[in-house]
Amino acid sequence: MAADLTISTDTARVGRAASRLADGTERPPAPVVFTLEGMNVSYGSHRAVREVSMEIREREITALIGPSGCGKSTVLRSLNRMNDMVPGARVSGTVEYHGLDLYADDVDPIEVRRRIGMVFQKPNPFPKSIYENVAYGLRVEGRRSRSELDDRVEEALTGAALWDEVKDKLRESGFALSGGQQQRLCIARAIAVRPEVVLMDEPCSALDPIATARIEDLMTKLSDDFTIVIVTHNMQQAARVSDRTAFFTADTDSEGVRHGRLVEFDETERIFNRPADQRTEGYISGRFG
Ligand SMILES: Nc1ncnc2c1ncn2[C@@H]1O[C@H](COP(=O)(O)OP(=O)(O)OP(=O)(O)O)[C@@H](O)[C@H]1O
């Protein structure tokens, strides 16, 4: 029953996915960025996730939640062809980006990853200065004047809510920053090339609560400009920041092999307060997973 749920209506974000505005009028849904239809991902002979169908919409925050091993990171990595780097990984079914097959032969995975950036679990600055960490992708893109680079580095660091803290030490190593600052530096690096989408794989799991809160605030701000997809183990985080939530679970087949599948995908407020599936309710109320 909804009354048992540990996450109350007050905490679940009634975000921009809500189909009605506060005054009750209908709001048209945002344009679709990704369409997954019957997507399967295998590692060798192991089908890690199967039959995933969902749409990810523009400038929304979509959270992927579910117990360990249900395939959240696998699904996330399929959105910018990061799985291409994993030997034996194979994606089948439909994965469209703005209606185009993301896995078509003529699609350049490097260009895909420029448009669809990624932030990882552990902050992973390059062994370079703060400035060069952010400038890196811009330099790879091609020649730019010094002042253009300076402007873009400032823009990205401001966008990642880090500029004020680092503007006087841009030549210092990225490693000299705190964990939370390093993660914001990685976000700055990701957004410096002005991607359309930022994928975040448990971006706060290595951070303390204060640094986590800053990143959550930042995500909300970033969603004004970027489409964000986040994997999180932290259900309160999904409830606080996301507009839509996808709940995955893993079924065990007769041979004891686990296959991840999408159980339910809806507006976050619905998933946390009125889930349609018992398994979703069991998971978010802490009775399962
Ligand atoms: N590089 C890989 N090679 C082989 N199998 C993999 C690889 N990455 C993931 N898997 C398998 O795919 C399944 C889904 O893993 P995945 O990491 O996507 O799940 P997850 O829900 O993100 O888990 P967690 O919450 O623990 O990070 C698991 O059975 C895992 O062992």
Structure overview:
- The protein is an alpha/beta fold and 289 residues long.
- The protein has a single domain, classed as P-loop containing nucleotide triphosphate hydrolases (Rossmann fold, 3-Layer(aba) Sandwich), CATH 3.40.50.
- The chain contains ten helices and ten strands.
- The strands form two sheets. It has a six-stranded mixed sheet, sandwiched between helices.
- Adenosine-5'-triphosphate (ATP) binds at residues 43, 48, 66, 68-74, 86, 258, 260.
- Our Rg estimate from Cα atoms comes to 19 Å
Helix fraction bin: 25-40%
Name the CATH superfamily classification.
P-loop containing nucleotide triphosphate hydrolases
Biggest sheet: strand arrangement = 6-7-8-3-9-10
CATH class value: Alpha Beta
GO molecular function: ATP binding; ATP hydrolysis activity; phosphate transmembrane transporter activity
Pfam family, one: ABC_tran
GO cellular component, one term: membrane
InterPro entries: AAA+_ATPase, ABC_transporter-like_ATP-bd, ABC_transporter-like_CS, P-loop_NTPase, PstB-like
Outline the secondary-structure elements.
Blueprint: E1 32-43, E2 46-57, E3 61-65, H1 72-78, E4 89-97, E5 100-101, H2 109-115, E6 116-119, H3 130-141, H4 146-159, H5 163-166, H6 179-192, E7 197-201, H7 209-222, E8 227-231, H8 235-241, E9 244-252, E10 258-267, H9 268-273, H10 278-284
Parallel strand pairs: 3-8, 3-9, 6-7, 7-8
Antiparallel strand pairs: 1-2, 1-4, 4-5, 9-10
Helix pairs in contact: 3-4, 3-6, 4-6, 6-7
